[in-house]
Amino acid sequence: MKVDRISTGIAGLDEILFGGMCRGSTGLLVGDPGTGKTIFSIQWLQQGIQEKERCLFLALLEPSAVVRRHVAGFRWSIEDMTFVDLSGVGAPVERDGGEYRVFSPSEVEQTPLWESIYRAVEQHRPQRLVIDPLTQLRHLSTDEYQFRKRLQAFHPGAGVLFASGYPRDELAPKGVLEPGTHFLQKPFSIVSLARKVREAIDARPANA
């Protein structure tokens, strides 16, 4: 079966990925600060612009103006790329007298950040979307379960694999694992991870 792939804009990476990322897939870019995650993401979106696709960058931590400055030296054509600045949403609130109130995760969960993200996606209908950084959303979630459920709202048909150091029979009674959730207990081998990922992918609806 032929897989529809889209170019990342990086020739060497496209070669490793057998032509690029799978169309309609979701990727997680992981690395220490300063390793080029944002630059990579912008280059991926810039490739989409060249292919006449709608591209959206959601800036959750650094203001979008700062992100634009970071990539200015590459001389990429990003004029048609949509940037939405959400860096101030859910931030600590300054009170009179210069005092700050830092909300607990459960309080911040109720702030409009998630709703702002959903609204931006609904408004711009991107074909390529970058959320930078995703860890900001984890910090604003009460737990891993709520974080996962929120992310699934972007792609309801996405496959889910839950990995934990706790056994399944300890997590299920707490409501962390929903019936049918693919589970992998840590530590695990590369082979067992690959097998479970394949199970999660194959279990998705045909139109997901």
Walk me through this protein's architecture:
The protein has 208 residues and is an alpha/beta fold. It has two domains: 5-156, Rossmann fold; 159-208, no CATH class. The protein is 36% helix and 14% strand. It contains nine helices and nine strands. The strands form four sheets. Strands 4-3-7 form a three-stranded parallel sheet, sandwiched between helices. The chain has a two-stranded antiparallel sheet with strand order 1-2. It is globular, with a radius of gyration of 19 Å.
Question: How do you describe this structure in short?
Answer:
This protein is of the alpha/beta class and 208 residues long. The protein contains nine helices and nine strands.
What CATH architecture label of the largest domain applies?
Answer: 3-Layer(aba) Sandwich
Name of the CATH class of the largest domain: Alpha Beta
Counted by DSSP, the helix tally is 9
Low-confidence stretches: 92-97
What radius of gyration results from the CA coordinates?
A: 19 Å
Strand order of the largest sheet: 4-3-7
What is the SS-derived class? alpha/beta
Instruction: Tally the beta strands.
Output: 9
Integer tally of domains: 2
Outline the biggest β-sheet: 3 strands, parallel
Enter the CATH topology name of the largest domain.
Rossmann fold
* Assembly context of the chains: single chain
- Overall pLDDT, averaged? 78
Instruction: Give the proportion of residues in helices.
Output: 25-40%
**What string, H for helix and E for strand, traces the elements in order?**
EHEHEHEEEHHEHHEHEH
Shape: globular
Say which CATH homologous superfamily of the largest domain is assigned: P-loop containing nucleotide triphosphate hydrolases
